Structure formats: C-alpha cells, structure tokens
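--- STAGE predict ---
source: upstream dedup step, 1 unique chain passed
mode: sequence only
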Amino acid sequence: MAISGKTVVITGSSSGIGAEAAHQLALKGAKVCLVARREEELRQVQGSIARAGGQAWIYPADLTDEQSLCDCADAILADHARIDVLVNNAAHSIRRPITEALDRLHDYQRTININYIAAVGLTLKLLPRMLEQGEGQVVNISTLSSQVPIPLFSAYLASKSALESFSRSLLAELGHKGIDVSVVYFPMVRTPMSARTQIYKRMPMMDVEKAAGWIVRAIDKRSARVGSPLGTVGSVALAALPGPVTRLTQPAFRQMDRLLKRASGRS
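--- STAGE serialize ---
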C-alpha cells in the first residue's frame, strides 16, 4: 500500500537493477518512469511491464548532457501531476589502479558526471514538485565499497561518496518539509556493468532480483539506509579508526585479487 499509486522515476532502467526494480514496483501498483540513454531497450522494458499489467512511461535521455537532462525532467513533470520518488540508479564504474590513471583524468570526470552530477541535476529539477506536494523521496544508489576501504575503484568510490554527502545534506535541510532520502549500499551485483570485468566472473555476487528488492524496500519503508550488516560494521570501524582499518584490510584485498585473477585464468 505504501507503493501502489506512486509515481516513481528510475534512472538507468533500460537493463540490470533499474529494469528489475521497475518491474517489481510496477507489479506493486507504482507508475514507473523509465530513464536511460537507449530508447529501444527502454521500450522493451516498458512492453514487458505492460504485458504484466503494469504502467510505465519512457524518457530516453543522456543525463550527462545538461540540456538532455532538463528536457527529460520537463517531460516527466508535464506528464505526471505528482512525482513521489526519484531513484538515482544510473552509474558508471571503472576498476583501475590510481598509478595507471595518472594521465586519465577523464576517468574521474566521466564517472563523476553520471554518478554524481547527473543524479544531483535530476534531483534539483524534480525537487520543487515534491516540495509543492509536501512530500517526496529521493533514493540514491551507492555501494558497500564506500563503507569499507576498497582499492582499485577510486573514481567510482569518490563519486558515490559525493552522492552520499549530498544525500545527508538533502535530508538535513528538507526532511522537515516531507522529503525523505534513502541511500542503498549494494555489494557486488551480477549485472552487465560488473560483467565487463573479467576477473569477477567467478566471484560470488548478489543477483539482480534481490538487489532490486532493496530499492523496493527503501521506498516501502522510507528507510534512510538499506544495506548489509557488513557495511554497517565497516562504516563504524572506518569512522572510528580509519588508518588502522585501511592498513589491516589491504593484505586481504590483495590476496582476493590474486585469487580472482588465478580463477579467471582457468575460465
């Protein structure tokens, strides 16, 4: 009942977690607005939702382009009298050591553009409607890896940490005006994005259906945080003892990386 009838905007919903979350929300009676770059894939998701009896609208857009983002937001606002939830799910990840990125500033620029700037930009465009309504929710997708000191993902983790800080400011400033903010901390999920990294083929990961269920739970419960016990413990430890925790965990991560590379070589 907390979801039925709500209008939910989901970015990155042409495949993976976003598409599955859209399906699950539509089955619970939400009206879902699908946002992604690939129009044909959006139409496929829309058709699948319609065949299951749900309602979905599509909004093809490149959210890293300001004009495209603004046009997308304007179209959503014109089509829907209420905007109840925005799920900032679109993201890009890069796995690369910092020493191999010394001449690759563009890695950081393109990652921050989609993971942080685009999410903030769409939030700013839809926020006035939520404030007019007197309520609304922003669900920002982050990662377990921002809760523990993970190597090799500096561009990705920096962008997600920025989004988390924005999320806290948004809740602190507008929580009393009916704006709820949730951060979902996913572990590794078996998606097209993670599949691009060869050594992760044999690594245990969360499946897409369960990950999408975390987004549904965040909306249903309006939770400030959805994540794992490991992430919660990691956040507390890292906040209390950042130096020792970072130094102590690195040998384990290096060993894991070696094991993954060895397993990948046998595949």
